[in-house]
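Cross-posting from the modeling subforum.

Setting up a comparison between two proteins and wanted a second pair of eyes on the formatting. Protein 1 (sequence, then structure tokens):
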Amino acid sequence: MNEPRWLTWSRQLQAISQTGLAFTRDPYDRERYETLTGLAATMLAAHTATRTDEIADLFHRETGYATPKIDVRAAVFDDRRRMLMVREATDKDRWTLPGGWADVNITLTESAIKEVREESGYDARVIKLAAVWDRATQGHPPSVFSCAKLFFFCELAGGEARTSLETSEVAWFGRDEIPADLSLGRVLPQQIERMFAHAADPALPTDFD
């Protein structure tokens, strides 16, 4: 893991306090868990440009048992083994695979297909789950909350290029044509390379850490 230890510690404190607040019925324990929330927020504020009260407010919006968030990414390939990528308008027009947070009330596969359609205009057919990785172990920029990243290997099933409120450009790239300006919070070069490996050999087992 390349994350600073203070981030790991503050995330763990926040998870303990969130779960504790969800289940405790003891007013004294509730006070102790609230103190942990404040401590986690103070640790983050000391190492970032965000105020303690803003971070504490973010933490208090998270309720129930603390679990990782789920990010889905679709590696869509056409019949020329080119990969579909989109420019992420919310991240300085950097390139990424279509995807985002998984939606409720639909399957993870359906979430991936939905993200492809919304962000690129294309329809995709999911072939398999290619990888399940923890964001913190992969080398992504540090983030407040724990996150599991699911990569689906997909085939093009129709549609046509169309941008959206989230994307400013849609394009296909060969293995040696991947743009350098990637949205690293969403996808990393080695993850893209691994998706090309799955496209070359669909029998490869699912990667996980």
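Protein 2 (same layout):
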Amino acid sequence: MIKNIIKKRRVIHGIISAIVIGAVMYLNVGIGSILIFGMVTSVIFGKVFCRWMCPLGFVMESMLGTNKDTKNIQMYNYHKMGCPIAWVSGVMNRFSLFKIKKDTTKCIDCGICDSNCYIATLNNKYSLYNEKKGNSSTQYSCSKCLVCVGECPTGSLKYTLKK
């Protein structure tokens, strides 16, 4: 089920972005309320707002595409530098209730997760499967797009409550 949700992330992102814009424009929901909502979701889920809910993130991703072009990925990350939700939720990646967990008994060290992770692609100090490197899913820049989870051929990566 989670793999189907991940495959539809762009559609989900677009729908939630439209709801956020509608709430601000037609229901007079203040930007402060959106900031608080984004920060609360980060405590629970980590930095999901940018890649799953943010209207600006949706526009940037639509303009730049979702391919692995390093210049586009860096530009996508650059626009988040002025966003207070991105600041707080990036820090919360380390402490949030939901984490990307690896089942070491299922992992075959194929590296497919890293080749689909923009954090590991931009900086080889991070990895999802190589435990000698830093965990890319707990880094500030990880926006929990969950492509790594969706592409794992053995299902060893899960997005789940930490235990």
